[in-house]
Structure formats: C-alpha cells, structure tokens
Design goal:
single chain; alpha+beta; two-stranded parallel sheet
Length: about 70
C-alpha cells in the first residue's frame, strides 16, 4: 500500500505531502515514510498487537479478496 501511495503521488504530480493513518493505515503511513522519505511527513497510530502488523499476514489476507468483497 505504501507503494500505491508513492505511485499516486507520482501520477498526480504531488512532490511532498503528509500521510496519516490509524490502525492498518498507521502502518501504511509509517511504511510510506520509511520507503519514500522524500515524499513528506508521516503520522501513525496503532493499537494492534505486534502480530497483527505482520505484513505477510496482511498481504495473504488481501490476496484472498476478490471482487465480491467490494459488494459487501
């Protein structure tokens, strides 16, 4: 998701900006700042246990989602 944010900045011609998020979004904001520090500041807040922030688990869950998930 951090890569998606960076790509959005690029196609939108946004040079710098602030990324904020809570829970999973906080992790995404943090990863965006780590991977793309030139894009700007990051603010995050998360109360999830450390195991819930395991990126491989999140990616595996996302891979199981199909178009039907958007209709719920």
């Amino acid at each position: 998701m951090a890569e998606d944010i960076a790509a959005h900045y690029e196609v939108s011609s946004i040079e710098r900006g602030d990324v904020m998020g809570y829970s999973l979004g906080g992790g995404v904001a943090l990863q965006t700042a780590i991977r793309h520090p030139a894009l700007g500041a990051s603010s995050s807040s998360s109360r999830l246990p450390a195991s819930a922030m395991d990126v491989s688990e999140v990616l595996a869950a996302m891979a199981q989602m199909g178009p039907a998930a958007a209709s719920k």
